[in-house]
């Protein structure tokens, strides 16, 4: 009898993306690396591994393009950005499956919060390109000095482009985060070299196709990618890069600030957060719980603005804990392609392990697990997570003190802690006790009280009874949460230098 064997299952080949440099596509000088779907643990594609020479060529292309792009009329720049917005929306169905697969976002988040938001950012800064760039100052009578004759001296303050901007972006909303940097930078007359996050760069690379189709001048937008820190480090170190705009962790932001300082780069750093949601005794719990619940339900808590520390007046503590536990229990965790799924995976196995490490550490420090937990706790009776994929269940921890690690460091996952307070003084002290200061929240029936309390919070933003953002408001943080502001017209200022032009009449 002849033995037969089953043929091995063929591994599906995945496409390898290319770098976008000076309006042309090229292979990565150091090869390529896999990009993995966080829900299936299977490769989505391969991203190019840029060499130092690739980065240098991208910077040189941006430098050359700057000379002409910076002198184009605002109307010309606006027209290019408008065409990019139109084409992004037209190609929505090309982008969404790729973005969903490489980020692991639920299909609802991937559909509603990626391409439409990115397109709107290009549209907003098409209008922004037309905003006045010159402010007239009142004439000043100046007496004669040994330096110059006296007379009526006039001046204007003019916004000028910074030059070549290196945009290093985060993994949670790849093309949205990039559009939020790229659109105002281009509107102000700068050129850009983008370095997307290593975990999910494919959508950002694909954006080069949109620029090609829109007829954007070669070199104004370049994309280099890499699996580690080396690509970004070369960009930061380049003396031909005038500015670095970075969104990511505070630890990396500190390194960029130190390295960029060697060449006196302009910096826009959007860094970590440890948002405090202060629930006063008269708060509407429905509004508070809905806002806090976004730390679980919105992209698996991978949001720097999330209210992950819930500071609750002691008179409402047990009520809030019970309401949050019920909210978390109602969330469906699982396949992000299912329309019923609310909580999908986190970005990588390493990040899942990091988040679980924070949970385990909190329990060791004395916190009480109300719901969720690590995979070990789930095996002991909590709802079972999918076997495949990088999942962390919505986790709620009580009996947390302000000095615990879980209350001080950014977890960047679906984990919420509850801390009681006695009075407003203690609430403010706890809220301000971390090194972060990005986004806090106040929940109370007395909005005048909330407005006054906001002035005492050392944070870049305060939401009153809402987790909604105003996209025209300045975005940025206090303390270790960053340097600078963007958003709305502030974004144009962030990517500009101010030049004074003075004359006598």
From TrEMBL:
Keyword hit for Manganese: no
Pfam families the UniProt entry points to: Aldedh (PF00171)
Domain Aldehyde dehydrogenase: residue ranges: 25-501
InterPro entries xref list: Ald_DH/histidinol_DH (IPR016161), Ald_DH_C (IPR016163), Ald_DH_N (IPR016162), Aldehyde_DH_dom (IPR015590)
Gene3D superfamilies found in the cross-reference section: Aldehyde Dehydrogenase, Chain A, domain 1 (3.40.605.10), Aldehyde Dehydrogenase, Chain A, domain 2 (3.40.309.10)
Residue numbers spanned by region Disordered: 30-52
Family named by the database record: Belongs to the aldehyde dehydrogenase family.
Full protein name: Aldehyde dehydrogenase
Species of provenance: Streptacidiphilus cavernicola
């Amino acid at each position: 009898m002849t033995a037969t064997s089953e043929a091995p299952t063929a591994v599906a080949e995945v496409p390898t993306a290319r770098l976008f440099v000076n309006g042309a596509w090229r292979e990565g000088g150091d090869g390529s690396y896999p990009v993995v779907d966080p829900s299936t643990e299977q490769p989505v594609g391969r991203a190019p591994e840029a060499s130092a020479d690739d980065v240098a060529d991208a910077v040189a292309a941006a430098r050359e393009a700057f000379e002409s792009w910076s002198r184009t009329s605002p109307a010309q720049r606006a027209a290019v950005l408008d065409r990019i917005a139109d084409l992004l929306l037209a190609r929505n169905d090309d982008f969404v499956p790729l973005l969903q697969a490489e980020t692991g976002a639920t299909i609802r988040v991937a559909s509603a919060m990626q391409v439409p938001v990115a397109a709107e950012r290009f549209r907003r800064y098409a209008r922004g390109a037309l905003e006045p760039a010159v402010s007239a100052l009142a004439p000043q009578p100046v007496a004669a000095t040994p330096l110059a004759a006296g007379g009526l001296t006039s001046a204007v303050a003019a916004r000028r482009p910074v030059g070549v901007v290196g945009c290093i972006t985060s993994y949670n909303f790849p093309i949205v985060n990039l559009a939020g940097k790229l659109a105002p930078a281009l509107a102000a007359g700068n050129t850009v070299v983008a370095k997307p996050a290593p975990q999910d760069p494919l959508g950002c690379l694909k954006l080069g196709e949109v620029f090609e189709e829109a007829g954007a001048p070669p070199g104004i937008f370049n994309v280099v990618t890499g699996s580690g820190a080396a690509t970004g480090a070369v960009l930061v170190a380049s003396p031909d890069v005038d500015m670095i705009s970075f969104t990511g962790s505070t630890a990396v932001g500190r390194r960029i600030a130190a390295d960029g300082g060697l060449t006196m780069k302009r910096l826009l750093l959007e860094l970590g957060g440890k948002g405090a949601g202060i629930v006063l005794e008269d708060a509407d719990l429905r509004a508070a719980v809905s806002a806090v619940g976004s730390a679980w339900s919105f992209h698996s808590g991978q949001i720097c603005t999330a209210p992950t520390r819930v500071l609750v007046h002691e008179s409402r503590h047990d009520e809030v804990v019970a309401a949050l536990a019920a909210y978390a229990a109602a969330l469906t965790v699982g396949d992000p392609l299912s329309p019923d799924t609310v909580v999908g995976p986190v970005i990588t196995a390493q990040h899942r392990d990091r988040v679980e490490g924070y949970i385990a550490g909190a329990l060791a420090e004395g916190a009480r697990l109300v719901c969720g937990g690590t995979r070990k706790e789930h095996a002991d009776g909590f709802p079972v997570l999918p076997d495949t994929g990088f999942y962390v269940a919505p986790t709620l921890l009580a009996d947390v003190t302000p000095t615990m690690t879980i209350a001080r460091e950014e977890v960047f996952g679906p984990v919420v802690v509850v801390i009681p307070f006695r009075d407003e003084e203690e609430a403010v002290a706890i809220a301000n006790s971390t090194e972060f200061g990005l986004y806090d929240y106040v929940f109370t029936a007395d909005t005048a009280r909330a407005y006054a309390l906001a002035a005492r919070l050392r944070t870049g933003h305060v939401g009153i009874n809402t987790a909604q953002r105003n996209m025209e408001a300045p975005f940025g943080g206090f303390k270790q949460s960053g340097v600078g502001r963007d958003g709305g017209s502030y974004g144009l200022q962030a990517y500009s230098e101010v030049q004074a032009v003075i004359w006598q009449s």
